[in-house]
Amino acid sequence: MLMNLLVGIPVMLICLIFQAIFVALCLRAYITHRKKIIDLERPFVNNIVLLSLIMILMLVGNFVQMAIWAQVFIWLGEFSDFTTALYHSGVNFATLGYGDIVMSEQWRLLGPLEASNGILMFGVSTSVMTAAVMDIIKQSLGRANFPL
């Protein structure tokens, strides 16, 4: 169990750093694009594009974290190919828990560690999207003609 924690906790911290980077990228992209589209004639379409950009960036951030965990599984000798390791990582990260692929008893505790990491990171991704939606609603309510 101690080895699982000694491996899993640093990976979780690395994922946290990557999540912070992607949140910062999203914030920068949102502010940059929001300033550009705020006075355009098609706010509805522009808001869809802006929200899609934020969602894609956060999904890429989560995918990068799954790939990091997959690479760790390969380094530990649990999987021989990246595709299987990534599949297993995605199942853990998204907390699906299929159980069709199980790691060795020695490293099995990394699955729940990745799942706890994943659910936290999906929560952060959701909060970024919620903040963007709330800002768009606020901006829309501030307009005289009220188009979303």
TrEMBL record:
Species annotation: Pseudomonas marincola
Gene3D superfamilies in alphabetical order: 1.10.287.70
Keyword list, A-Z: Membrane, Transmembrane, Transmembrane helix
Domain Potassium channel, residue spans: 67-133
Transmembrane segments: 6-27, 48-76, 118-137
UniProt name for this protein: Transporter
Domain of life: Bacteria
Record Pfam families: Ion_trans_2 (PF07885)
